[in-house]
Amino acid sequence: MHTSLAVRTENVSRHYQMGAALVRAVDGISISIQAGEFVALLGASGSGKSSLLNLVAGLDSPTSGTVAVHGSNLAALSREELAKYRLHTVGMVFQSFNLIPSMSLLENVELPMRFAEVDRRERSALARQSLERVGLSGRLSHRPMELSGGEQQRASLARALINRPKLLLADEPTGNLDSRTGTEIMDLIRSFNQSLGMTVVMVTHEQTLAEKYAGRMLHLADGKLVDDTANNYDSKVLPESKQVPRPAGEIR
Amino acid sequence: MKLYDVADLAVRNLRESIFRNSLTTIGISVGVASLVAMLSLGIGLQQLASRRLQKSGLFDTVVATSRRDLRNFREQREEGPPPSDSPSLDEPALIKIAEIPGVVEAYPDIRFVTDVRFDDKPHLTMVAGIPFSARNNNDAFDGMQGSFFSSDAAAEVILQKSFAEELLGITPKPGTDTTNIAELAKPLLGKQVTMRYAERTSSPSAGAGDSAAYSVVSRERVLKIVGLTDLDPDSLRGTARARVFMPLKLALDLHIMQSNLRDTSASDSPSYTSLSVRVQNPNQVPAVEDAIKKMGFSAFSIVDAARSMRQFFAVLDGFLAIFGSLALAVASIGIVNTLVMAILERRREIGIMKAIGASDADVRGLFFAEAGAMGLVGGAVGVTLGWVIGRLINFGTNIYLERQHFPAAQIWSVPLWLVLGAIGFSVMVSLLSGLYPASRAARLDPVQALRYE
Fold first, then answer.
1. Structural domains of chain A in order of their starting residue, each with its CATH number
2. A54 to chain B, closest Cα gap in Å
3. pLDDT tens for residues B143-180?
4. Beta strands B214-229 and B192-202: pairing type?
5. Nearest to A98 among B13, B357, B450 (CB)
6. What are the phi and psi torsion angles at B390 (to 5°)?
7. How far is A93 from chain B (nearest CA, A)?
C-alpha cells in the first residue's frame, strides 16, 4: 500500500458573508490523509463537510490556511492550473449525479476527455471501457433521464474515473438512492479504493455507511474537526451476496 | 479543448434550444440582409453610373485641337509656341496621335450646319460624323430604335429624338419627357431625308499646292433613316450638339464646304479643327493629354468628374452601410440576450463542466463558438435574403422604368467581396456580442452553480 501523503490541510478556513453574518463554514481544520485511504467526512448538515470537500476538490478557495494535494498547494495555483488539477488529479461524484441531461451516457463519460484533449477514437474506446466496468455497457446511448438513480450514479462514477485520478471525492453519493442501490454504489467505490489504491474521501451523514466502508471517520461540527477515528472495517464481514462488478482491466 | 470539440459542443447546445436560437439567428439574417440589400443597390447604382459615363466618352476621350485655329473657343492660355507657329492638325498628326500608347483610336470631328429636307420641308440642323466603332462603345446606341449604320460609308442617318419630333411636327410640352421613342420611330425608320450641302472641289484651273483655289458646287444627297436614339451620343460637345448623325467616312468623303475641316478639297492633306482621341482606360487620360500637348496641340478632357463621382458614391455607400448596419446592431443585442439567457439556463451545466475539469477558456470558447455559429448561419442566410431583396427591388424598378419608356437598367449588384464581407462582418459582430456572455459564463463560480437547482 501507498504511504505517501495524499491530502494535507493546515488550519484551513472558509468563511463567507451572508448578509450581516459571517458564516464559518470551515473553521481551522488540519488533517492529513494518506494515499490509498478511504476517509468518511461525517457531520450534520451545515457542519462544513461539503465545504471542506469543495476546498479539497479545488472548486473553492480557502479564506485562510492551506490545502495541499500530493504536495501541491492549491491556493498557489492559478484558475487555469486549478482546472487542470480538477481534470487530472480528482474525480468527483455528487448526490444528484450531475450528469448533463442533453448528452448520452457515453458522451457524458467522454466529456472530461474532451477537456483533456484526448483523441476522439481513443476517447470513445476508454469511455466504453469505463462504462463496462460499472456494468452499463448496454446503456451507452441512453440519456440520463432514461435511467434509474443507481445507473446514473454508476455512470457518474465512470465519468469521475475516466481521467485516472489519484483522488476520488464523493459528496453524499448514496443520498438519492435506496439502500440496496446505495450499497451497490458503495461496493463499487470500495472496489476502486482497494483494487486501484485510489484515495477516497466521502461526505456522508450516515454513520452506518461510514462504519461499513470507511477506514477512517472524521466528524465535523460547526466547521471544526471534532473527532478523528480509525475504523477497522476489515474485521467486518462483507455479505457474500453483494456481487461487485470487477474492473474489466487495470486502470492505467 | 480542441477546436472540433468546441464546435461540436456549440452546435449541440444550439440545437438544444433550437427555437430560441433560430429566432436570434433570423434576427441576424434580417440585419445582414438589409446591409447587403442597401450596399448591393449602392454598388449597382455606382456601376450603372460609371458604365453610362464611360460609354458617353466623358472619361476616356481627349479632344485634341489645333492652336492655330483662332475659332477654337476652348483655347486656353497654355505654354508652348504661339498659335501661329503651332503645327496643323492634319492626317500625319492624326496618325502620330493614334500611335500614342494607350490610345484606342483617333478620328476627326466632322460637324456642320446644313439643310435637311423631309416631306419637302427644310430643317436646319447640326450634322455630325460618327465613327463606326461607336456602335459598340457609345451607350447612346445601346437602346436605340432601328439599327446602327450598315457600313462606314453607307448613305444612312440616325436621328436624335428631338429632331425626330421636329420632323413629325410634334412639340412636347416643356418639362415633360413622355414621348415614346418607339412611337416616334415607326413613321420614320426606312424613310429618306435629303441633305443639301455645298461641296468644295479643287478648281481645275488652279495649280497643285494652291490650296486657296477651289470652287463650290451645290449638291444634294438622299439619306435613309436607319435609327433613332434617345440619349445624346455627342454629350461631350456641350451646346454645339448635333441632331443628325451620319457615318464618319461618308461625311469625310463628301468634302462639305460648311464643315469644320480647314481644307476638304481633294488634295491629300486635309487639316482638322479637332480630333477625338479615345483612350483605353480613364487612368491613361492625363498621360495621353500630356503627349498631345507636347506635340503642340491643345488637349481637353473631363477626368476630374470621374473622381468626384467616385467620391459621391463612397459617401452614398457609407450612408447605406450605416443604415444597413443598424438592423445588425439590433440583432447583436438579440445575441447578447440569447446567450445571457443560456447562461442562466445552463448554469448548472457550466458548474458540472467546471467541476469535472473544464477551464475558464473552455467555457468561454464554448459560448464564443455558439455566438460565432449563429453569426455564420445568420450571415449566410442574410446574404441570400439580401440578394433576393435586391433582385426584387431591381425587378420593380425596371417595371417602373419600362412604364416611363426608359430602357431597363441593372441597378443592383452583389460582388463576391460583398458576400464574403457581409458574412465576415456578421460573424465579427456576433463574436463581439458573445464577448460579455462568454466571459460571464467563464467566471461563474462552480460551487454556486452546482448548488443552483
1. 36-58+78-235 (3.40.50.300)
2. 8
3. 688 888 888 888 899 888 888 888 888 776 665 555 67
4. antiparallel
5. B450
6. -60, -45
7. 10
